[in-house]
């Protein structure tokens, strides 16, 4: 076997055509044979099995076969392409994963002690888009490759694997009854059953190439809308039939963010310096709102629970309008001098009580009282990603997540406090990873209960991995530079705090001399 099937790894560029051919002719009947090949590498030397185990793993992974919940201790999968593979809760003690491609691999609760990771390739990890529903209580997290559905009240979860080639993050939204979840990319919207993870329907986006589609369910749960560059579409969920397309002339290649009126009779979309509201039955434009202060970014709309007011988040403000008259009612300016940051989008969301409104961007969220415009809550955290803010639930909660650290957190925006978090640990004790590439990239993660931004090298080292001499020197240099930077920042902060204290004493001295 090692001299034939395992003689050369299937990831070798010289035999990509052979790999493609094997992937096409191998069917489900061969799955057990491929697992047998992997099992027979257990405890054997690399010289004896060569790439046979790795090639079998490559083909299994190409069929989207999960590696989760398996005892894979001492197996040899050298040279495997494990991109997007799921090893959740698997035992990989002393496993050989040398020269493997590990892009976006899931190692949640895996036992990686003494595994060998020499020469592995790791691409940039992506953050998670998170969403939460109320009935029943599930939290969903997604990236380019998968959606994880986790029950808040139990240990149950489903993993939905995306088999199509990735090119952008999957935008997600729960149905009003919480029983379905939609995921959207530039070329399709899919809907799955939350309990089973079974796909219900795929809706093809028959439009020009789009980079991203924002899905939102109609209040009746029977229709779904998607907004992208230049258009909003509404589909029938049962049939996949496209019901209506709205293409504002002012769109000019800007992403349009849709939202349904509470009655379900109207839909609003926002673009660069405008918000429009349409009748969804006729497609007739009911009103066109233009802010007095121009915004260079797309304006994101949100209806008040009463349905009488609509808010829009612009470049540096949140405004509200009367939807009957089009009158601009109020403006809440966003003060970026406080250190908060954005990426040209401010997401407004009315809280369920109807008395307060949130605005969020990259790394921050603020809650204001609508009547007084007084700031009630302000939180700055790298956990907040701008795409999260579509996904408040009916109780005013917001879910965030980080792919790199397998961390989920739910915030109650009525109080600004965390009401749920889940941190899935990775045990890397004794894991060897000499000559691994991609370890200098930074990730945001929770380590030992503390939120930190670290390199992958630091992350694996803190989880117990064994580093070679060069990696140890690199790690020491990283930590030395980090300590120096922290000391510099601390000194600057101390100087800022101390400066105001000197001025009153100086003024007091002049006053005494004058007397």
Quick take:
It contains six helices and 29 strands.
Describe the secondary-structure layout.
Blueprint: H1 16-25, H2 31-39, H3 46-49, H4 52-62, E1 129-132, E2 138-142, E3 146-151, E4 157-161, E5 171-174, E6 180-184, E7 188-193, E8 199-204, E9 214-217, E10 223-227, E11 232-236, E12 242-246, E13 257-260, E14 266-271, E15 274-279, E16 285-289, E17 300-303, E18 309-313, E19 317-322, E20 328-333, E21 347-350, E22 356-361, E23 364-369, E24 375-380, E25 397-402, E26 407-412, E27 417-423, E28 442-447, E29 450-455, H5 456-462, H6 469-514
Antiparallel strand pairs: 1-2, 2-3, 3-4, 5-6, 6-7, 7-8, 9-10, 10-11, 11-12, 13-14, 14-15, 15-16, 17-18, 18-19, 19-20, 21-22, 22-23, 23-24, 25-26, 26-27, 28-29
Distance between the termini: 100 Å
Which strands sit side by side, in order, in the main sheet? 1-2-3-4
Number of DSSP helical runs: 6
Beta content comes to 25-35%
């Amino acid at each position: 076997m090692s001299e034939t099937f395992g003689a050369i790894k299937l990831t070798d560029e010289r035999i990509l055509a052979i790999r493609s051919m094997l992937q096409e002719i191998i069917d489900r009947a061969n799955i057990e044979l491929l697992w047998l090949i992997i099992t027979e590498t257990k405890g054997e030397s690399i010289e004896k099995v060569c790439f046979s185990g790795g090639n079998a793993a490559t083909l299994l992974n190409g069929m989207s076969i999960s590696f989760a919940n398996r005892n894979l201790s001492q197996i040899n999968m050298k040279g495997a392409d494990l991109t997007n593979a799921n090893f959740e809760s698997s035992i990989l003690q002393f496993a050989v994963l040398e020269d493997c491609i590990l892009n976006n691999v899931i190692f949640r609760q895996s036992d990686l002690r003494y595994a060998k990771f020499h020469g592995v390739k790791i691409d940039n990890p992506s953050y998670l888009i998170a969403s939460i529903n109320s009935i029943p209580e599930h939290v969903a997290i997604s990236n380019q490759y998968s959606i994880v559905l986790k029950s808040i009240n139990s240990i149950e979860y489903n993993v939905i694997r995306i088999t199509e080639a990735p090119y952008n993050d999957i935008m997600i939204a729960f149905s009003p009854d919480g029983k379905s979840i939609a995921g959207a990319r530039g070329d399709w919207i899919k809907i799955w059953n939350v309990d089973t993870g079974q796909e219900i329907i795929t809706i093809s986006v028959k439009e020009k190439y789009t980079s991203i589609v924002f899905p939102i369910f109609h209040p009746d749960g029977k229709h779904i809308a998607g907004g992208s560059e230049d258009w909003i579409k509404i589909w029938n969920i049962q049939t996949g039939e496209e019901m209506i397309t709205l293409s504002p002339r002012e769109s000019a290649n800007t992403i349009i963010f849709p939202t349904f009126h509470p009655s379900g009779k109207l839909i609003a979309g926002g673009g660069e310096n405008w918000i429009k509201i349409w009748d969804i039955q006729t497609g007739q434009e009911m009103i066109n709102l233009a802010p007095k202060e121009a915004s260079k970014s797309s304006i994101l709309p949100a209806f008040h629970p009463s349905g009488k007011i609509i808010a829009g988040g612009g470049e540096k403000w949140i405004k509200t309008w009367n939807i009957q008259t089009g009158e601009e009612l109020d403006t809440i300016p966003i003060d970026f001098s406080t250190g908060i940051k954005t990426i040209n989008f401010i997401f407004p969301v009315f809280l369920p009580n109807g008395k307060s409104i949130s605005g969020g961007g990259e790394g921050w969220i603020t809650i204001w009282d609508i009547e007084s415009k007084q700031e009630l809550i302000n939180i700055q955290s790298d956990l907040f990603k701008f795409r999260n803010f579509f996904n408040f639930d009916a109780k005013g909660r917001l879910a965030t997540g980080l792919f790199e650290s397998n961390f989920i957190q739910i915030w109650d925006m009525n109080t600004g406090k965390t009401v749920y978090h889940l941190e899935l640990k990775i045990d890397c004790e004794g894991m060897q990873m000499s000559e691994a590439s991609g370890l200098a990239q930074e990730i945001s993660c929770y380590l030992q209960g503390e939120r930190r931004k670290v390199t992958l090298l630091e992350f694996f080292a803190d989880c117990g991995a064994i580093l070679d001499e060069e990696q140890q020197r690199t790690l020491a240099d990283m930590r030395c530079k980090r300590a120096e930077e922290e000391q510099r920042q601390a000194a600057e902060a101390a100087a800022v705090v101390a400066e105001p204290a000197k001025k009153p004493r100086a003024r007091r001295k002049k006053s005494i001399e004058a007397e």
